[in-house]
């Protein structure tokens, strides 16, 4: 008796459950979008890179649990992971790296052009006027911490030294400030589209 | 401005990393049924050898020979620890010890990781580390020069080999990758730290071919299972080359 032929799923993420190499397609389809999504929320190219890497590593680890059938459902699932990881980053002030560490994925360095490319990709310049306005509503401590970390791109230990606070405090000020900024920007009608 | 012009370059490198992980997993999945068959054959072979040797000279004195007779060795770390010739060899899985002659060399004080041991993960045994050194690329090799990264092979608790390299100017290992026998055979036991490449190749492999970001290819020698170099750009792929 002939065995019924089961067609291969067309969704690359679904296919990757049995064919891990299909995950390459998933990455190519969504890497830029996920990075843009995260860069607009973190306003920090390095953090956006780390969260992007963790998003895809988490997705690769959990790909057998994806139950959708379409690329649109796959995108929703991936962005859900990114949103969850970003929420944790905002809460804790540190990027979780469990999945990248478990898979032995090395984070590639950013070269000089990459900072500019992330800025253009996420249209951070378009966000800037609104950002400056909202920045003025934060506490002075949060404003200073965000300025040092986001504008001057200093590492957290340097931010802490400049503000004469501990590193966890510096991280907390940046992450709380970013959370408030992010919430304010998402409420703004002219930017709502870009932040969803 | 097109999206491709705005695509940051690190996304390509990250994609290459994910691709490597995916291909290793695919190789593992393909090897799994074969490994199960091999284990069954080895178990049967070991039983026959035990009976024959026990009859000839007494099982207790010939167990080492039985261990040597196992072509794949199975995966019994306890057995290997009892009979392996050096403490470093004992900590690695028998399959890796067979494929990597560098793991069979005697361990000396110079192999210790020293202060760098603080930075390795909790699932490795730095006390059994082996210091390694990548051979210099031949003079005139384009894009490449000798890497100076201090590097070690360290056994993991599961018997695999973790490859660690200390980043220039850093206080701890900058990068590490755990190499399983399948990864080694597939040519995936390599890592990069910025533009430094370090990797392991199984016995008999004389060189590897490295593909760089600009698409050019560079051949590197393999000595004592180790290869590596510092490049003037990123590495996108490594393929095992000809036999020695």
Short description:
The complex is a heterodimer of chains A (196) and B (244). Chain A is an all-alpha fold and 196 residues long. Helices cover 69% and strands 0% of the residues of chain A.
Describe the 3D structure:
The complex is a heterodimer of chains A (196) and B (244). Chain A is mostly helical. Chain A has helices at 12-15, 23-42, 45-61, 71-92, 98-103, 112-121, 124-135, 140-151, 156-163, 167-187, 189-192. Chain A is elongated. Chain B is α+β, with helices and mostly antiparallel strands and 244 residues long. Chain B has one domain (3-240). Chain B has helices at 3-6, 10-57, 59-69, 77-83, 87-91, 94-99, 181-186, and strands at 130-132, 144-145, 151-155, 161-166, 173-179, 190-193, 196-200, 207-212, 217-221, 226-231, 235-240. In chain B, helix 2 runs antiparallel to helix 3 (59-69). The longest helix of chain B has 48 residues, at 10-57. The N and C termini of chain B lie far apart (51 Å). The interface between A and B is medium-sized, with 34 and 30 residues.
C-alpha end-to-end distance of chain A: 52 Å
Domain module count of chain A: 2
Radius of gyration of chain A: 19 Å
Q: Please indicate the percent range of residues of chain A in DSSP E strands (runs of 2 or more).
A: under 5%
Which runs of chain A of at least 5 residues are low in confidence (pLDDT < 50)? 190-196
As a percent range, the share of strand residues of chain B is 15-25%
Radius of gyration of chain B: 20 Å
Number of helices of chain B: 7
Indicate the multimeric state.
heterodimer
Mean pLDDT over the residues of chain B: 72
- Number of helical stretches of at least 4 residues of chain A: 11
Order of helices and strands of chain B: HHHHHHEEEEEHEEEEEE
Roughly how much helix do the residues of chain A carry, as a percent range? 55-70%
CA-CA gap between termini of chain B: 51 Å
């Amino acid at each position: 008796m002939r065995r019924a032929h089961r067609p291969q799923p067309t969704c690359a993420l679904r296919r990757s459950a049995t064919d891990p190499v299909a995950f390459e397609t998933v990455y190519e389809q969504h890497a830029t979008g996920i990075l843009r999504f995260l860069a607009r929320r973190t306003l920090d190219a390095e953090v956006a890179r780390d969260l992007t890497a963790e998003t895809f590593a988490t997705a690769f680890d959990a790909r057998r649990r994806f139950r959708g059938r379409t690329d649109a459902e796959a995108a929703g699932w991936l962005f859900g992971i990114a949103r969850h990881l970003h929420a944790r980053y905002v809460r804790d002030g540190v990027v979780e790296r469990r999945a990248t560490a478990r898979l032995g994925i090395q984070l590639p360095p950013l070269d000089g052009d990459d900072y500019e490319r992330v800025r253009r990709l996420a249209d951070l310049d378009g966000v800037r006027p609104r950002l400056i306005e909202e920045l003025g509503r934060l506490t002075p401590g949060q404003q200073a911490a965000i300025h040092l970390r986001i504008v001057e791109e200093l590492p957290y230990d340097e931010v802490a030294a400049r503000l004469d606070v501990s590193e966890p405090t510096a991280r907390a000020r940046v992450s709380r400030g970013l959370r408030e900024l992010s919430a304010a920007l998402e409420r703004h009608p002219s930017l709502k589209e870009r932040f969803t | 401005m097109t999206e491709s012009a705005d695509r940051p370059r690190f996304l390509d490198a990250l994609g290459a990393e994910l691709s490597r992980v995916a291909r290793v997993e695919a190789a593992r999945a393909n090897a799994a049924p074969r490994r199960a068959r091999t284990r069954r054959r080895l178990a049967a072979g070991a039983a026959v050898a035990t009976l024959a040797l026990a009859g000839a000279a007494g099982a207790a004195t010939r167990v080492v020979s039985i261990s040597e007779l196992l072509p794949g060795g199975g995966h019994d770390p306890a057995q290997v620890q009892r009979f392996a010739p050096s403490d470093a060899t004992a900590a690695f899985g028998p399959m890796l010890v067979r494929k990597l002659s560098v793991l069979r060399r005697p361990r000396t004080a110079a192999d210790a990781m020293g202060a760098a041991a603080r930075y390795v993960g909790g699932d490795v045994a730095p006390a059994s580390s082996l210091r390694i050194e990548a051979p210099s690329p031949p003079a005139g090799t384009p894009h490449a020069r000798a890497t100076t990264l201090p590097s070690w092979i360290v056994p993991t608790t599961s018997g695999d080999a973790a490859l660690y390299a200390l980043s220039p100017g850093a206080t701890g290992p900058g990068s590490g990758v755990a190499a399983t026998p399948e990864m080694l055979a597939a040519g995936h036991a390599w890592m990069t730290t910025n533009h430094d490449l370090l990797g392991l190749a199984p016995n008999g492999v004389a060189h590897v071919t490295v593909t760089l970001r600009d698409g050019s290819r560079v051949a590197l020698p393999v000595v004592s299972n180790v290869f590596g170099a510092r490049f003037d750009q990123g590495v996108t792929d490594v393929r095992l080359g000809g036999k020695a």
